[in-house]
Amino acid sequence: AQSVTQLDSHVSVSEGTPVLLRCNYSSSYSPSLFWYVQHPNKGLQLLLKYTSAATLVKGINGFEAEFKKSETSFHLTKPSAHMSDAAEYFCVVSLSGGSYIPTFGRGTSLIVHP
Amino acid sequence: EAGVAQSPRYKIIEKRQSVAFWCNPISGHATLYWYQQILGQGPKLLIQFQNNGVVDDSQLPKDRFSAERLKGVDSTLKIQPAKLEDSAVYLCASSEFLAGGYTDTQYFGPGTRLTVL
Predict the structure, then answer these.
(1) How far apart are CA A109 and CA A38, in angstroms?
(2) Can you tell me the distance from the alpha carbon of A88 to that of B17, in angstroms, rounded to the nearest whole number?
(3) How close does chain B come to A46, measured CA to CA in Å?
(4) Higher pLDDT among residues B33 and A29, named by residue
(5) In chain B, what is the straight-line distance between the N-terminal and C-terminal CA atoms, in Å?
(6) Which residues contact A46 (CB under 8 A, 6 or more apart)?
(7) Among candidates A37, A27, A26, which has minimal Cα distance to A60?
(8) Which residues of A84-110 are buried (b: 16+ CB within 10 A; e: fewer)?
(9) Are B3 and B57 in contact (CB under 8 A)?
(10) Residue of A nearest to B4 (CA)
(11) What is the pLDDT of residues A2-50, one digit of tens each?
C-alpha cells in the first residue's frame, strides 16, 4: 500500500522569504512523486515531478523539491515567496512497475503576507 | 493543444436524483481518471481507465456510482441516487501511458461542482 502525508495544513510566510512545504510518503515500490498546485477557482497544474532521475527536481515558478529516500520525503521549497504563490499545494505518490494508481495528500494551503 | 474538457461546470440537484458528468481527455491520452474533491480535502481517485479498461475502481461507491469509457476516448461518470455527502467537485484528468510503469503528468479539467440539496 502507498500513502502520502503532508505535514502542514497551512503554511504562512511573508513575501520574499523562503517557502518549505513538507511531504512524506510510503510506498512498497520506487515511487513516482509529484507536486501539483491549485489556485482559487482554477484547475490543478503540475509544478514538478520525480521519476528516478536526479534527486533534486526543478519545477515551474522557481519551485524545487528534493527526493530523499532515506527519509521518505519529497519536500517542496522556493527561495523567495511571491504573492502569486498563494494557493493549495498537493503532494502525489504513485507506484512504479505495473499500474500507476495516484494518491493525493490532503493539501497544504500557502498564505503569503505582503 | 486542447485541454481536458468537462461538462457541466456546475450542477445542483435534490438528494435521490440522478446526475451525469462528461469528460473528454486530451487527444492521444490513454489513461483517464475521475476524482472526487470534497471541500478542504485532497482529490480522491474514484476510477482509473487505461483505454476502455478499468485499472482501479477500489474507491468507487459502486452501489450508486458508475463510470464508463466505451470507445477509449471520452467518459461519463454517473451518480444514482445522489446523497448529500456527494456534494463535491468532480475532476477528470488524463495522461499518457508510458512503458515501464512510469506515469506521465496528469492534466486536469476544470471540474464539475455538484451541490446536492
Answers:
(1) 9
(2) 32
(3) 7
(4) B33
(5) 37
(6) A34, A35, A36, A59, A60, B105, B106
(7) A37
(8) ebbbbbbbbbbbbeeebbbbbbebbbb
(9) no
(10) A43
(11) 789 999 999 999 999 999 999 999 877 778 899 999 998 788 999 999 8
Q: Which of A30, A55, A111 is nearest to B101 (CA)?
A: A30
Tell me the Cα Rg of chain B: 14
Name B107's bridge partners: B94
CB–CB contact B56 A101 (8 Å): yes
Best of A2, A38, A44 to mutate (most B CBs within 10 Å, chain B): A44
Q: How many CB pairs under 8 A join A and B?
A: 60
Question: Which parts of chain A are beta strand (E)?
Answer: 3-6, 10-14, 19-21, 23-26, 32-38, 44-50, 56-58, 64-68, 73-78, 87-94, 103-104, 108-113
Quick one: cell of B61?
A: 461507491
Residues 6+ apart with CB under 8 A from B53: none
Q: Cα(B24)–Cα(B94) distance, rounded to whole angstroms?
A: 9
